[in-house]
Design a protein that fits this description.
This protein is globular. A hairpin with a 2-residue loop joins strand 5 and strand 6. Helix content is 31%, strand content 43%. The chain contains five helices and seven strands.
Amino acid sequence: MKALLLTTLLFIATSSMAQTSADSLAWKSPATLVERLLQCVSSAPGQPKQWNSFKALCATDARIAVLLQRPGKPPVFRSFMVEEFVQTMSKNDAPFKEKQLKVQIDEFNGMATVWQPYELIAGNERRTGVNTYQLYSDGTRWYVHSLLWTEGDLP
């Protein structure tokens, strides 16, 4: 029993230390949260993506989804739980930078919807698209409840 209690306390203490990192600044508002998410998925050549930080910004039951547009074919929708998304994306950890072009946030009563056009730069390739987020606050911090993105030419 004492070993179980000690293990539980150690886990809580370690989790708390991880939550006092730079990510704690991102939890303060929807704007800082979505900007930090882009930093987590972006990486320079030879640098790993910040997947642990990415996961810490999401609710435990968050969904990450993509709507792939294919010329002349029906779109493909793919949805993941956060851990599944990280595992899938980690298989191809190619460096790229995703940057926010602008952001629109509608917030009410602890909920926020964020519309975030972006540009993705991978080597000489540039692509654009839109991320849309559903966020919520528990009164102390903001969480990603869902993220859906698609790529395409922006208007």
